[in-house]
Amino acid sequence: MVERNRRRFLQAIGVGTASLIVPESLFGALPGRSDADRPNFVIMIADDQGWNDVGCYGHSHIRTPNIDRLASEGLRFTHAFLTCSSCSPTRCSIMTGRYPHSTGAKELHQPLPADQVVFAELLKQGGYYTASAGKWHLGEAAKANFDTVAGGGPSGCERWIETLQKRPKDQPFFMWLAAIDPHRRYQPNTIAEPHGPEDVVVPPFLPDIPETRRDLAMYYDEITRMDGYIGRVLDELDRQGVADNTFVLFLSDNGRPFPRCKTTVYDSGIKTPFIARWPGHVPSGRVCDSLVSVIDIAPTIIELASLASSPTFQGESFVPLLRDSQTSTRQSVFAEHNWHDYRAHERAARSKRYLYIRNALPEVACTPPADAVRSITFQAMRKLRDAGKLSPAQQGCFVAPRTAEELYDVELDPYQLMNVAADPKYARVLAQMRSVHEAWARRTHDEIPSELTPDRFDRETGARL
User: Fold this and answer.
1) Which of 417, 373, 366, 368 is CA-nearest to residue 391?
2) CA distance 344 to 335
3) Where residue 104 falls among pLDDT bands split at 50, 70, 90?
4) Do residues 352 and 318 both lie within one domain?
5) How far apart are CA 464 and CA 461, in angstroms?
6) Is 231 exposed, middle or buried (0-12, 13-18, 19+ CB in 10 A)?
7) pLDDT at 15
8) Are both 278 and 183 inside the same structural domain?
9) How far from 398 is each of 311, 376, 452, CA to CA, in Å?
């Protein structure tokens, strides 16, 4: 059944019939590379961590010594982006190397269809031991691509070391280590030495009030808790003597779960921390400013594993960036926002300097996800809004209607607070970015559905409808 569905899927995306019977070489190591020489892979993915909420990305107070260690021993990317600012669509996109609207799982909680080609499957068929530990957000069918799937809570990291230790020692391995941290709900005293309100850096689109600082401090605590587990993974790789032959990648699945972050296609929603380490192969302590998308992870890992790439991948390998951090592999990245608690359809095209956004539903506000709506931050913001005490930059999640197009000069406006789409000085840039977006939409067959999933939560209280 799965193979029949796979054939239909490949036909639907235009792969020729000759490719429908997958050659044996696609699932086997290319000639001249023994198992002992093939790298292992460890991906550690945070749940709802903002890209700059890490010490090595410039945060002066948050405690992330192990992520910082990873950056000092590897390559830190400053322009890495997600294809969606929503948990399960992002993870399905990473696993398939396809945009969310192309995976059949573009909305929150939609399971990945069985006919999708998953890079973990290619690794498994190519001789790799594949394991997942922590949050599982890919659906039941995707579990067949892993030799073992383990849970873990409340951090999601509790079984990471156990999974590493129980792996077969005679196979190269791939580990998908998926945290739940720092996803809501937050509790005081998550770690022994909690962050305090004085440690918090409040972005300008949030009000600097006690509720915001208390909320962000508890969010920081979960990042620090996860960071401790990341350190244990790095130590375990050292203990097993495999660190030098293991490609480690750390990233997040979307922005922080606060207003104007998670579920938006601003940088606060779709930009991600992205750090790669592979001793002896990736230079240590370097920074790469080139654009990279998480859709590029699948073809990159398959190339490093010396396996033939899948014709289903829509991303581009960033192996050249690992070799030379000053080169570039793409001029633009793309992201989308589909249903995540609320009716939505937004698309973004991002170059190094500009962010272009297309809103198919300008009549609705940019409401944060329901758990963020229920937060002490958002509920305090409602009171400030009603009292007329929010600044223009802090009103974005309440404004409706919005403009159908947005354009931001990120170099001059890093928080994307000044929409210059109507500014004549940017008319040429607007036309260019609009063209880039439309070409991508045609290329990936992205269309606005005739019916969109409706709101399932109240936009003011977060209560289930």
Assistant:
1) 417
2) 13
3) very high
4) no
5) 9
6) middle
7) 54
8) yes
9) 42, 16, 21
254 and 218 assigned to the same domain = yes
Total domains in the chain come to: 2
Residue type, 47: D
Last residue of a domain, one of 280, 298, 328: 328
3-state secondary structure 94-125: HHHCCCHHHHCCCCCCCCCCCCCCCHHHHHHH
The CA-based angle 379-382-388, given to 5 degrees, is: 150
Same domain, 221 and 365: no
DSSP label of 280:
T
In a domain, 464, yes or no: no
CA 415 from centroid of its chain's CA atoms: 19
Residue 4 forms part of a structural domain: no
Residues spanned by the domain of 242 = 39-188+205-328
Q: Let me know whether 248 and 320 are in one domain.
A: yes
Tokens of 307: 């396996």
Check residue 368 and report its DSSP letter. P
Q: Identify the domain boundary among 328, 347, 368.
A: 328
- The separation between CA 152 and the C-alpha centre of its own chain, rounded to angstroms, equals 20
Residue 37: band (very low, low, confident or very high) from pLDDT cuts 50, 70, 90: confident
- Does 357 lie in the same domain as 320? no
- Count CB atoms within 10 A of the CB of residue 382: 15
Together in a domain, 306 and 343: no
Q: What is the DSSP annotation of 22-38? A: --GGGGSPPTT--TTTS
Give the tens place of pLDDT for each residue, 181-203: 999 999 999 999 999 999 999 99
Q: Name the residue with tokens 């400053």.
A: 78
Residue 190's pLDDT is what?
96
| Domain annotation covers residue 221 | yes
Same domain? For 267 and 373 the reply is no
Q: What is the pLDDT of residue 402?
A: 96
* Token digits of residue 292: 């990279």
* DSSP summary character for residue 309: P
Share of the chain above pLDDT 70, in %: 92
- pLDDT for 18 equals 36
Q: What is the pTM of this model?
A: 0.93
Q: What are the start-end ranges of the H helices in 23-83?
A: 65-72
Quote the percentage of the chain above a pLDDT of 90. 92
73 domain-assigned: yes
Find tokens 């802090």 and name the residue. 394
pLDDT above 70 (res 32): no
